[in-house]
Amino acid sequence: KTTAWRVLLTALNRIENSDGQAHIIDPKAISKDDLYGYMDQNTREWTDGLFTHILRKIIDNVRGELSKRQWIIFDGDVDPEWVENLNSVLDDNKLLTLPNGERLGLPANVRVMFEVQDLRHATLATVSRTGMVWFNQETVTSAMLLQCYLNRIRQESVFNVINQDDPNSKDNIIQSSEENKTSILERQNHLADLLEPYCEKENGLILDTLEFSEQKQVHIMDFLQSRCLQTLFSMLNHVIRTIVKRQLFSNDRATPLTEKQIEQYLIKSLIISMIWSFSGDGKLKYRQQLGDFIMNTIKNNNIAPPTDRSLPIIDFEVNSEGEWDSWLLKVPSIELEGSKVDASDLVIPTIDTIRHETLLYTWLNEHKPLLLCGPPGSGKTMTLFSALRSLPACEVVGLNFSSATTPELIMKTFAHYCEYKKTATSGVVLAPSQLGKWIIVFCDEINLPDEDKYGTQRVISFLRQCIEHGGFYRTSDHTWIHLERIQFVGACNPPTDPGRKPLSHRFLRHCPLIYVDYPGEISLKQIYGTFNRAMLKKFNNMKP
């Protein structure tokens, strides 16, 4: 939906050689007073809200706003509480009447647009005043998304994905010369050719696996094909970046891979990425089931399965040479002192923690928002913080959400840990005070905030706006604040637990989702084996 109106606006601007503007407002991320304005009951003084401020700025025409195409887009849930105020704007009157008696006319160059997921709470009065364009799921299919991804990696460097805000990063230095850029794109085109057979619309491995997971498996939250594919793309970006670095910037310790090793590394990594992207939000047995489905589907291919057939494919990773390595071999055996057994921050490495930490590191390094879901006490927070310790130059800010949490809590957190800067290109920017540092906002119990009577969680709408549009409107002066080097991570109990609310699809589609279950048998043996050895050290005559 967003892409459709953006393309239309860009096309109209080119045809008319004008500079049209779009003003995007999420009406549920701010209060009604902040949207339309309010009157002080004591002084009878009127204060404009965001919508009235934008409209008045266009009418005042200080910078030639009336000569440009102006689109005001309400990108959020429609409900009678806020949208009924627009009825006189949307009909032939084209007038906004304010509580102070003032009337603002809608100029001829202004259009009002609503971008919504559904019309459950829209009234007939609103619907009858607007035109309707229906985007069903077949408008943009999964096959189209796959083809779009292949086209993107053929034309754009994957090093751009994570370095837009940090021009001095190592990856930006890598592609700083034109020669390097050309070499990177040549390599990416070769990798896209290797991936293409698996992305085909008919009998393509990726789409077949996606369909199997959707129809035959149980997921902890609503299954969204777009979310699963975006998760897969972020993991493949990491894989492609690793291969390109190895091929173009190898050293004595890491020589370039052969063509066969490249194919093995890429396709085996694709298999692991599909398992985590499509069934990472389910229990371990579903990941094992999906792994079996994939290996049975490609058994006639030249991708050899692991030599140890007794273990599921999910228990293996792909090493730097393109070979299978067991996760069990990666788990370090640690020895504790008896006095440290009751330490509250103690982490015993297990196959689950090592596997999850590696996975989280991939997404955190891509600066993707992500969600961990699982029963209470399953180790979500511990696993996340353990992964964050391996990330350089980042600071974690923990927020505990409750039923009463509002966007104001997040904005206060921003003000405490970040600073506002005025820039020539991006306007007002909110970024961590320390140059090059990232702030990771950890939202614990993210599905606890109460919904309003129309089913919207305001704080989730605000988070979606920050993630999707890269900023928010500061209500004090109606300035758009662009976020830089700020990332969001959430953890929650399953939505079926008491007091939990299902998260909006428009928010979920941006977030890779991992289900963290209670430790399995192998992990429990690793945990209690470590504890028991530590306790028995006190008794010299007892040998484990």
Name the structural class. Answer: alpha/beta
CATH topology of the largest domain: Cyclin A, domain 1
| Total beta strands | 18
Main sheet characteristics = 5 strands, parallel
- List the quaternary state of the chains: single chain
Task: Going across the biggest sheet, name each strand in turn.
Answer: 11-14-17-10-18
Helix content: 40-55%
- The number of helical runs is 19
**Whole-number radius of gyration?**
26 Å
GO biological process, one term: microtubule-based movement
GO molecular function: ATP binding; ATP hydrolysis activity; dynein intermediate chain binding; dynein light intermediate chain binding
GO cellular component, one term: axonemal dynein complex
Protein name: AAA+ ATPase domain-containing protein
